DUF692 domain-containing protein (Paractinoplanes tereljensis), 272 residues
Amino acid sequence: MADQYGVGIGWRPEIDGFVAELPGLRFAEVVAESVHAHGDLPAGLSRLLDRGVTVIPHGVRLSLGGAEPVDPERVRHLAAVAGRLNAPLVSEHIAFVRAGGIEAGHLLPLPRSREAVDAVVANVKRAQAELPVPIALEPIAALFDWPDDELTEADFLTEILDRTGAGLLLDIANVYANARNRGDDPLELLDKLPLDRVAYVHVAGGDEHDGLYHDTHTHATPQPVLDLVAELCRRHRPPALMLERDGDYPPAAELRTELDAIAAASGYPAIT
């Protein structure tokens, strides 16, 4: 996505009115599985489209990292939603959500092995064959690394992107969480990632407990993540940035403050 989209926010039913009326909003994101392939769109989404706001469908159930082939029906749904929203691209996670017919209900981390790379690449290519637009892939936050990892996070991601031609949905909060939980420097991880492939960026909050940083999406974006946003934008052409909130929604004034903080860190104009 071009940088003219600036700062955006994830549309959620609970903040429908707030998002639909943000005066300077130029792009938003919606969980693809929350949108029906047919029938009426939620009122807030329709309002955004009527205003000319670009809306990106973000999938959470394709299980691109699963050992079994991606479910064709789920791919068709993502493709249909992209068509309904006239989206320029879709996004999904480098993760698995089911195995042996059991749905986990969570995004689960993959072992960073060459076998896992092959599985992800095969499923991404299956999805690309049915999707009407390009796909961007998001590495997830993880509380642990598998013991038999063969590749670093950066090398694992880069090989997948190189072999599929997919874009990168960079979650800067995940970069912070993963580096912090490993005891590493987030800036060192950021500098190893293929930033030239970034399609857009997620920004979110989290919380530390039991010695681990949890990527909750229910807390305000902390200052260290905002600092990473600023470093990203100093290192690379400023991408489109999107605030993710998925629960415990604060009052509108607090959401505006958080959006303004992201804009200030990135150098974009405030949208509120």
